[in-house]
Amino acid sequence: MIRIQAFTFNALAENTYVLYDETREAVIIDPGCYDQSEKEVLTAFIAQNDLKPVKLLNTHAHIDHVLGNAFVKRKYGVELYLHESDLPVLKSAQILAQHYGFGAYEPTEADHWLEDGQTVSFGNSALEVRFVPGHAPGHVAFVGHADRFVIGGDVLFRGSVGRTDFPLSDFDTLVHSIHTQLYTLPDDYTVYPGHMGTTTIGQEKRTNPFVRI
Question: Is the pTM of this model over 0.85?
C-alpha cells in the first residue's frame, strides 16, 4: 500500500509529495522546498520514517515545482524524471526564478524522460504515467491504481483547473487532457493537486465549473 505525505512549500503554496510503501522505498514528486527550513522539514520526515528515496519525479517544470530539484538530487543521489516536452519549461525556470523572487534557485537537468503509459516503480508499488498537457506542454500525472489516487500537479483542482495564461499553455488542450486522461478514471479516485486540498474525480465531474460533465 502506498502512503502519501504532502507538504506545502514556498511563497506560491506548492504541494510537494513523498510516496512510500512497506519497503520504505520512496519517490519525491515536485519538491518545492526553497529555503533551509523547508528543506529541513522534508529531510526530517524522510529520516524519521527511515525512508530511502529512489526517484525524483516532476509532474511539470514550472518554477514552484522544481525549486528543490537540485537539493533532492544531491541529498539523496536520485535522478530526475520529466516529460521531454517540458524541457523548455525547465530551461526557463532560472529566468522565472528571478521574476518570482527565488534568487537562490539552483537549476538542474533531467536524467530520464517520462512517457505516456509508462510505469514508474518503487518498492512493491507502481505508478502509471498519464500525459496531460495544457497547463504545461509536458505535464504528466501519476496514477496509483492499487490505491485509487492520482498525483495531478496543476491540471485539475477542487473547483478549478490549472492556469493557461503562461507561455506554452493552452486551455483547450488542458480541457481535452482532463476529459480523456483524468475523467476516464473511476469517480472515487482521490486527486492530490499541486496546490490547495484534495478532491475526487467524481466531485470534479459533478461540480467543477470549468470541466463539469
Answer: yes
Under DSSP, is residue 3 helix (H, G, I), strand (E, B) or coil? Answer: strand
Let me know the angle formed at the C-alpha of 147 by 141 and 153, rounded to the nearest 5 degrees: 20
15's grid cell: 504541494
Give me the domain span that covers residue 17.
3-207
Do the domain assignments include residue 213? no
Q: What SS3 class is residue 70?
A: helix
Burial class (CB in 10 A: 0-12, 13-18, 19+), 168: middle
Confidence of residue 95 (pLDDT cuts 50, 70, 90): very high
What's the DSSP call for residue 85? G
Question: Is residue 137 pLDDT above 90, yes or no?
Answer: yes
Q: Select from 88, 14, 18 the least CA-distant residue to 57.
A: 18
Question: Please, which residues have CB within 8 angstroms of residue 110's CB and are 6 or more apart in sequence?
Answer: 58, 80, 81, 82, 84, 87, 90
The model's pLDDT over 197-210, given as tens digits with 9 standing for 90+, comes to 999 999 999 999 99
Q: Please state the domain count of the chain.
A: 1
Q: What is the dihedral angle through the alpha carbons of 114, 119, 27, 130, rounded to the nearest 10 degrees?
A: 60
